[in-house]
Amino acid sequence: MIASFETILEMAEAKKIAAAAFNVTSLESIQAAITAAEELKQPLILSFCNSVHGIYTPMKDIGPVMVELAERSSAPICVHLDHSESIGEIREALEIGFTGVMYDGSVLPYEENLANTKFVVELADRYGAQVEAELGAMARDEYTSVARTDHDAEEACFTDPDQAAEFAEKTGIAGLACSFGTVHGLYLKKPNLDFERISALYDKMDAAVIMHGGSGLSEEETQECIRRGVRKINFYTYAAQSAGKYVKEQLNWYQDKDYCHYISVWIRESMTRSFMDAMKVFSFLD
After folding, report:
1. Average predicted confidence (pLDDT) for the chain
2. Start-to-end CA span in the chain (Å)
3. Helices (runs of H) and strands (runs of E) counted in the chain
4. Smallest Cα–Cα separation from 46: which of 12, 72, 19, 74?
5. For residue range 208-232, what is the model confidence (pLDDT) as tens digits?
6. What contacts 24+ positions apart, CB below 8 Å, involve 155-163?
7. ∠12-6-283 over CA atoms, to 5°?
8. Marked catalytic residue, from 82, 104, 160, 194
9. Cβ neighbours, 10 Å, residue 186
């Protein structure tokens, strides 16, 4: 069943878990994510990042499929647009039927980010959808120009809890992607997570604390973030990488099965396992 972004976040808060936000790029990954949610009876945020993955599958093609399969599912599912800097793209997602959108104005000056986010919240409200925004920076290259050392640079990019509280109050967002030591993609070094900052964000902000960069953290680190108040975790990189490795292994083993339909099955099998493993960690399931 399709559900709003706000509903999924409320379910996560009630259970004191983090809702899994799985990025999808193909039919196989959509099926894998929904299967994981149905098997484990957990809420799901089915997410698509058009700015990154639209070159593989355009949102106009994959979006309606995401909505249709979410509506058919027995699990509560929000269909969500991830990391969009374009109002036009956000409007397109809402027209397709997405129930959550992320406006990413984190590279903009604070006041411009605030004004644009407020406009997106008003737009999404007309469609019965809610908004995720971002304060702080998680991209590696942004750390190199802010301060003199890597540690100082990372600290300068972290989300300020007082500013986050003001931002959430003035915009009416449902959730805020916060920077406290995670990065997108693969980790080049051990992450330096600021757990106290997560607690402060959770205590001060009237919006869900959201963590991007969920791949690569240990189970203990992830669950400590959730205990501190994280209520949504984005996860994709490791699932995609594991599926690629699994396909290679299968092709080497079954050299007579070098047909694309076999590859589709292997991708779905691998991603289902990865998504279920992540969801168990996010939901404190054995």
Report:
1. 91
2. 25
3. 12, 8
4. 19
5. 999 998 667 899 999 999 999 999 9
6. 158/194, 158/197, 159/135, 159/197, 159/201, 160/135, 160/136, 161/197, 161/200, 161/201, 161/203, 161/204, 161/205, 162/204, 163/110, 163/135
7. 15
8. 82
9. 11
Please report, rounded to a whole number, the percentage of residues in the chain having pLDDT higher than 70. 89
Report pLDDT for 192: 76
Answer yes or no: 141 catalytic: no
For residues 101 and 79, give the distance between their C-alpha atoms in angstroms, rounded to a whole number: 8
For the chain, domains (ranges, CATH) are 5-282 (3.20.20.70)
Task: For residue 130, give the amino acid letter.
Answer: Q
Residue type, 7: T
pLDDT beyond 70 at 48: yes
Q: Name residue, tokens 């942004």.
A: 142
Separation CA 234–CA 274 (nearest Å) = 13
